[in-house]
Design a protein that fits this description.
With 298 residues, this protein is mostly helical. Helix 2 packs parallel to helix 9.
């Protein structure tokens, strides 16, 4: 129902997910400045200076904005691919653990289920780690209380969860519930989880260089402030409105790049990490409802 209601609102009128709030102040001030220039022109002040259009060529500013937006989207898409890989790897790991590992004693089924939910815990811990949030109740529901208390004091909870999964696999190998080929295959999938964690950390901890972001913002502001002087002679009282529209376009493109640069937060344009983690948990719930055709010894 919520989706249907959102669909009834035309995209052009939607505020949620847009950058209007982020740029509104800049747009209004640029529009006011353009109006002031129009007033000065009306009273015969020499404010019309078309020559100022050559100070910052439009093509140069356009290329800078394109580079900024493309770089931000590459970071967003790389984050999405990493989380897609985490989802697929968790499914493959869960399937192999559930089907491959033999059950020697009645406790083995319980240990298996614990290991499967640790896979979901890895994803949830990764989400919290990327958001800079502490271990919370989401993880408490996915593991024994002793593990949860230990995880709360760890600097990198996803690594610790991966260690527990690897330790479980090694124990099963030592008990002859898993052969060496199966262990290697499953360990490779576990390594893939760690690799994707590293990719996400790289995206998070390597933002756009500050000097570039500052310089682009300065150029945008300077361009929008010089614009009224170039147009006032031909536009007159329309100068303020057109300046606001141009600044809305330019500052909007820059704000979009800033919005998607870090895709792991809570903004409307960030990755839906909460939904992804819930999907993985549902997958594990479904998997544990099935009876694997493994060699049982009890």
């Amino acid at each position: 129902m919520k989706f249907d209601k959102e669909k009834r609102v035309p995209t052009v009128l939607q505020l949620k997910g847009s950058v209007i709030k982020a740029i509104a102040k800049h747009v209004i001030w640029c529009g006011i400045f353009g109006t002031i220039v129009s007033i000065l022109h009306y009273f015969k002040f020499p404010v019309s200076q078309p020559i100022l259009g050559s100070v910052i060529p439009s093509i140069v500013l356009g290329l800078l904005l394109v580079f900024r937006t493309n770089t931000a989207y590459e970071r967003f898409w790389e984050g999405r691919k990493s989380w897609g890989s985490i989802v697929n790897t968790v499914r493959n790991l869960a399937r192999q653990i559930w089907v491959t590992i033999d059950e020697i004693s009645p406790e083995d089924r319980k240990d298996k289920i614990t290991a499967l939910y640790l896979l979901v815990a890895f994803a949830v811990a990764t989400k919290l780690h990327l958001r800079g949030e502490p271990v919370n109740h989401e993880l408490k529901e996915l593991m024994p209380s002793s593990m949860y208390l230990e995880l709360k004091i760890m600097n990198n909870p996803p690594i610790e969860v991966a260690f527990w999964i690897g330790d479980y696999l090694q124990r099963q190998y030592n008990r002859n519930c898993l052969n060496s080929y199966q262990l290697i295959s499953i360990q490779e999938l576990l390594n893939n989880l760690i690799d994707n964690l590293g990719i996400c950390e790289r995206i998070l901890k390597t933002p756009m260089p500050l000097a570039y972001a500052i310089h682009l913002k300065q150029l945008l502001l300077l361009y929008c402030l010089l614009l009224p002087f170039q147009m006032v002679d031909s536009l007159e009282w329309w100068t303020g409105l057109i300046t606001a529209l141009v600044s809305f376009t330019l500052f909007g493109i820059e704000a979009i790049g800033l919005e998607i640069e870090n895709p792991f937060g809570y903004d409307a344009n960030d990755l839906p990490l909460d939904t992804i983690c819930k999907t993985m948990k549902r997958n594990i719930d479904d998997l544990t409802s099935l009876t694997p055709n493994v060699r049982s010894r009890f």
